[in-house]
Amino acid sequence: MKLLVLLLLLALTHSFPTEPTFPEHQTESRLRFAALDEVRLLANGLLQLGHSLRDFVQNTKSQIKDIFQKLNIFDKSFYQLSVLASEIKEEEEELKKTTVILKANNEEIKSLSLEINSKVEDIIKERKHLRRQVGGLEEKLSGLSQSLLSAEQVVEISTLKEIILTQEKSITDLLKAVREQSEQLNNQRTKIKGLENKFNSAHIQETDENLDRKHQSNSLSGYLPYFTSDGSFSSNLPKDCGEVFSRGQKSSGLYAIKPHESQPFLVKCEFTDEGVFTVIQRRHDGSVDFNQSWEKYEDGFGDFSSEFWLGLKKIYAVAHQGHSLLHVQIEDWRKEKHFMLYQYILEDAAFNYTIHLKLQTGESSSALDEHSGFRFSTKDHNDGNRDPNCAQDYTGGWWFSICGDINLNGKCIQSRPRKKGTHWKPGKGTTSFKASKISISHLTKPQPP
């Protein structure tokens, strides 16, 4: 603004010269007037620019003011929501405390209600007794009033009668109030019972769901209706643990598989540095009775988290696909471990799951190094074995050859008679075992990371 004033003063000074002009200065004067026009034009442009800047600043201030107003509204809304959430939380805590208090006082209320009902019954009985007495007195007084009582006595008796009637009315009102209070107590008790049922139902449902998950995850649930272990529908399940590993699973655990020409079922897959295995038998503490029937050995029994037998039907479904070996691992009572790896062929139920073995690696066993024709037998099913009483004499189901040579499904016992327990006869002598694990080794070996 100061610059504009100076420019105007300069223009006025040049407009009124104090010295006379001469003809030779006409050209210079014209130039000065031309410069003044330019200055005026510049001044007008600066003035318009100033007005524009002022309008822009005012618009910007207005927009900033609107933004601050919206921010204040948002802050107020957020604060109100925070206060409302705090109030809801406090009300929830108060409700929980009230529920606890109501539950604690439920028995006291119940006892008071019973006591009140008892007193009400006593009052009713007493009222009936008083009515009978008053009725008898009225009859007596009526007879006496005609013969003996004076007028004053009759008035006194009438007064007493009115008092008794008043007392009866008071008792009736009291009984009515007691009934209303009893109804309120019953309603309150019903509400408390409803709250207790809701809490108990939620707790029981959660407990049952946890127990069902735990039971389903560890038990041998038989064949699955095309569902995976987490309950989701699937018709494209892997055929064995080898395919489970090839699909990217690297952690040992329970997986649903579907071998060719079989229904889906759960198996325990182990992925180790030695290879990929489907565990078909596990013994370690004797917690599961392996002296089972033929039907049990076909279907499977036990618990995946402890001891189990997968089942001959499922074992055959996995073995029938080929490209696998039979891996046997045992541990004696001195904690020494032994293992054997066999080439094998397993026949179906029509041939009593006859097994053919050939030792590939591991410790030699005269009974199982190379043999064709071991038929599976149980205490209630024997067909063609050399000694038909092996399963009954040595307990458990097994591919018996000569009784006493091998039985990994006997009882887990260390003391005699050892023929009843798990044992193995590698060459000379018979060794009793504490733990065993039989697996189908798939021809897929995990690569080191």
Automatic annotation (TrEMBL):
Top-rank taxon, per record: Eukaryota
SMART domains per record: FBG (SM00186)
Species lineage: Eukaryota, Metazoa, Chordata, Craniata, Vertebrata
Gene3D superfamilies named in the record: Gamma Fibrinogen, chain A, domain 1, Methyl-accepting chemotaxis protein
Keywords for the protein's UniProt record, in alphabetical order: Coiled coil, Signal
Keyword Transferase tagged: no
Organism per entry: Sinocyclocheilus anshuiensis
Pfam families (alphabetical): Fibrinogen_C
Protein name (Swiss-Prot/TrEMBL): Angiopoietin-related protein 3-like
Polar residues composition bias: residue spans: 429-449
Signal peptide limits: 1-15
Coiled coil stretches, renumbered: 88-140, 168-198
